Each structure stands twice: as structure tokens, then as C-alpha cells.
Amino acid sequence: MDEIYWMPATQLRKEMQKRNIGVEEVTKAFLNRIEKYDRRFNAVSEIHETAIKQARALDSATRGRDALLFGLPLLVKDNIDVAGLHTTAGSMALADNLAESNAAVIENIVHHGGIILGKTNMTEFANFTSQGMPNGYSSRGGFVKNAYDPNKNPGGSSTGSAVAVSAGFCPMAVGTDTSFSVVACATENGVVGLKPQHASLSADRILPIASTLDSAGMFSRNLSDAILLYNGMAHRPMAPVHPIPAKELKIAVNQHNRDMVSETQWQRYEQLFEALRRDGVRFSEITQPYSPYQRSIMLCEFRRDLERYLAGASAKLKKLDQIIAFYEANPQSMMKYGISTLQEAAQKSVDDLLYQEAMAERERMRGQIFEELKEYDACIMTGPTNIMHFVGLPSLALRLCEDESGIPRGIILYGADERRLLSAALTLETYCSPFVPPHL
């Protein structure tokens, strides 16, 4: 039975459709694995009581076995509404927020035959509580641990979902990404992470940071599975995506902050680039920098967007000022790392001149970046830049290789055209190391 934990989602789905494996059997196996191992990783915050019931219904179904996500068990980040489960964003201030209905992306998953196992822990308020907040920590959930090395960085705010996939708790998981919360988590945990183009998925009933930047995203162990889940979360699935032949690929390499990349990591990039060049891939160097205006948008939109979400939620606290007061009234349990970002956001507004300047800069940069990227299938990020998130481009992370100690290393790509990016990444993935499970 162990083989199902590492089976590609597309293959596992076929086995259940053909009744070679029961949906209930698969669901119980993943739930048992979570119970056995998650005390070491703290990735899962809550289990859905109806998971087995969902599975039995699918096993007995005579229709709908061709559903896109038939029988596939999934875990969901704790800032996305799942009916009957809590949506807390990792904060005790929202511990009473029991979702009454599914977010639109979750409703689509269920419609396509997916099974929601439960929720995952995350960095508190999607890493928007304090600049001193460690990745993977929340006042409600504690620390999430990397499955490859408990002392290693587990990644940004979607850390529980990424760890759950790498540890074999589910074949795919749902996260959110405002700036690297999916793609950076994926690189740290040896899995694939996909952040779709901004606004291509519904943001309904997802606890936000900034609507201009936020997107739901997905984790899996290969890109084909991530695309499968993307289609299952969308209102309208995309047409099939196929790899681009290597000799037809044109790749840009963003050199911004190149000096911040370690020589060891650069050597890993060069090994990949050389293998691709031998097969005819064409490379060009470009420079697309980091934008400080992104944080201004986050600070100015946060209160407005959070309070819009809370207005329709069951949480008692409805205003950012009330949440801050809750933290200040419980300093020992709630303010271990401070709340400086929440406090700063409480003083900002979309009416601020700072926000108007940031949005104007975003619009200007969107035109420039799209123009620079239009001839490329994909752009590879080397040194740190947030430009893809700032202007709303799709981005993804592939598992590149393992380092000398067996820790996975990743590579991040983005592009102006989502279909071209996915097609190019399917080709690049064949040059990267396959997923290797951690030793639990």
C-alpha cells in the first residue's frame, strides 16, 4: 500500500476510476499516514470529519467516475474556507471562524470529485504579522517542520501544504501566494508549486492580504499533477498543455541580484542550462528588478480586503483594530514575534498617495515586463526579485536536484503567457531530478 503515497495523482486517479483501488481505501491510507507521522512535522491543522463519507459516496457512484479529480485526497491551507472547518490564517484571534460554505476553488474541487482531507498549518496571517515572524510559525498551530530536515527553513506562508505533499500526506495540496508563498515553499520542500496568473482563479472566501496580488495556488510532486489541480480549481479548465520541443524553446534568464546566488547554486543552474543548450534551447540574459512598491500595495489593501472577508465570516472579530487589540491583550501567547506589520497596515489605506503611486508604477511595469517577455516561452529567476508577483504573472517552481546532504533545491520560472510557460516548464522538468521522498 505504500506505493500510493508517492504515486502521481494522474495515475492514482486512473487506478480508482478502474476500481483497482477503492477511494475509501486510499483516503484511509492517507489519513493513517497523517496520524502516524504528522506529530513530527505539524503540517496538518484539522481533519475533515466527512472525508471517509466523501470517499464512500464516490466508491458507490455509478456516474461521474471520469471526473477530473475523482477520488483524489487533498489538504487545504488554513486561509481558505472549507465548509465545516475553521479558517484562522494561523491566528488565535480567528479561532472561532468556522466556515459555513466552501470557497469557490474548493467548491470546484469537490464538484470535480476531489476529497478534502482537512486543513494545513501556515505562517500566521500569510507571513503578514511581523517581519520577525519565522517561516512556518503561527500562534494557533506552532511550528511546521521541513520533512527533509526539521532544522531547515520550511518556506513561506503555505508551508503546511508544501510539507504535506513532500511527506506523502496527500498527492496534491492547495495554498495561496501573494509573494513567493507557493513557489518558494515548493523549492524548500522538493515539490512543484504553481501560482497561476493573477485573477485566473476565484478569490471568493479566501482570507486575503491584497486582492491586487493574491492568488490561490497548488502543490504536487510533478507539474502535470499541478496542472490537473489547477484545472480542477478553475471555473473552466484549460485546453490540454503539451511540452514544447527543446529545439523550439526560447528562455530568458533574469540576472537581477545574480551576485546574491551562491556559487554552488549557480553551478546547478549552469548544469541545467548546458544540458538544455546541447538540445537546442536558446537563452538570453535580461534584467527585471525587485520592486519596493509591492509592499506598499500589501500594506494599503490589507485592512480593506481583510475586513471585507470578515464581514461575511463567522468570526467574532470583524475589524483589524479589534484583531490587534486581541493580540495586545494576550502578549505571551500572541506576540512572541511581534505584530509590527499588522500595526503598520492598520495605519494605511487605499486612499493614501503611497497606494496611488504604487498602483501607477505597477501598471507602468506591467507594460514594460510584458513587452520584454513576449518573445520568450519562460524566464528563469536567478537572484531575488518579486517582479512576477508585482505585475501578476504566472510563476512556478520545479525541483531542480538534491544537494550533497540530500536536501532538495529548486528553480523558479515565470512568463508573460501562462500556456507557453506551462508548456516550456513541462519540457524543463524532464531535465530536472525527479521527486525523491524524505526519509521519515
User: Which percent range describes the beta-strand content?
Assistant: 5-15%
Structural class: alpha/beta
Q: Tell me the distance between the termini.
A: 16 Å
Q: In percent, how helical is the residue content?
A: 25-40%
Q: What is the succession of H and E elements?
A: HHEHEHEEEHEHEEHEHEHHHHHEHEEH
Protein name: Amidase
Domain Amidase: 25-381
InterPro entries: Amidase_dom (IPR023631), AS_sf (IPR036928)
Mind explaining what this structure looks like?
With 440 residues, this protein is α/β, with parallel strands linked by helices. Helix content is 37%, strand content 15%. The chain is built from 15 helices and 13 strands. It has helices spanning 9-17, 23-41, 51-59, 104-111, 159-166, 183-189, 223-233, 263-278, 293-311, 320-329, 331-334, 340-345, 353-373, 387-390, 418-429; strands at residues 44-47, 73-77, 115-120, 137-138, 142-143, 172-177, 192-195, 215-220, 250-254, 282-286, 378-381, 395-402, 408-414. It has an 11-stranded mixed beta sheet with strand order 1-3-2-6-8-7-12-13-11-9-10, sandwiched between helices. Helix 4 (104-111) links the parallel strand 2 (73-77) and strand 3 (115-120). The longest helix has 21 residues, at 353-373. The protein is globular and about 60 Å long. The two termini are 16 Å apart. 52% of the residues are buried. It comes from Candidatus Ornithocaccomicrobium faecavium. InterPro entries: Amidase_dom (IPR023631), AS_sf (IPR036928). Residues 25-381 form the Amidase domain. Pfam families: Amidase.
Short description:
The protein is α/β, with parallel strands linked by helices and 440 residues long. It has helices spanning 9-17, 23-41, 51-59, 104-111, 159-166, 183-189, 223-233, 263-278, 293-311, 320-329, 331-334, 340-345, 353-373, 387-390, 418-429; strands at residues 44-47, 73-77, 115-120, 137-138, 142-143, 172-177, 192-195, 215-220, 250-254, 282-286, 378-381, 395-402, 408-414.
